[in-house]
Amino acid sequence: MEFQDKVLKCIDCGNDFVFTAGEQLFFHDKQFKNEPKRCKACKTKRVAVLGAPPAQGQTHRYTKVETQAVCSGCGKQTTVPFRPTQGRPVFCRECFQSRRTAASA
Q1: Cα separations in angstroms, 83 against 19, 40, 60, 88
Q2: C-alpha distances out from residue 91 to 31, 56, 61, 67, 94, Å
Q3: Calpha distance 52→64 (Å, rounded)
Q4: Helix and strand tally (H, E) in the chain?
Q5: Which of 6, 17, 65, 93 could potentially form a cystine with 39 if both were Cys, beta carbons 3.0 to 4.6 Å apart?
Q6: ∠8-12-15 over CA atoms, to 5°?
Q7: CA–CA gap between residue 22 and residue 36 (Å, rounded)
Q8: Is the CB of residue 74 less than 8 Å from the CB of residue 94?
């Protein structure tokens, strides 16, 4: 399969950017279904805002999110490495591990 560079429009800034043949080959190899929607600058900005880890090769680090919560299993105060979603239970490490082993058995 042969790929050719494509010009796409960024959904954030509206500028045109090139989706190179090499990037298309990478997307094809990884079986990604959608073309990129953002230029590199807007993608970098979005990743920084969302707190996602940077792509490999980038030198800056992301800050780890830690949130105080009350365990839905035992009721003790705990810290979790994510922002809990409203309406979903949060478990301390011990309750999480015990539920995990019970589910796999």
Answers
A1: 33, 27, 22, 11
A2: 34, 31, 27, 12, 8
A3: 9
A4: 3, 4
A5: 17
A6: 45
A7: 13
A8: yes
The answer to whether residues 73 and 38 belong to one domain is no
Domain with 29 in it:
6-50
3-class state of residue 7 by DSSP:
strand
Q: Which amino acid is at 32?
A: F
Kindly state the tokens that stand for 84.
């809990």
Digitized pLDDT (tens) for each residue of the chain, 105 residues in all: 789 999 999 999 999 999 999 999 999 999 999 999 999 999 988 888 776 555 555 555 556 778 899 999 999 999 988 888 888 899 999 999 998 888 887
Query: Does 82 reside within a domain?
Result: yes
> Cβ distance 37 to 19 under 8 Å?
no
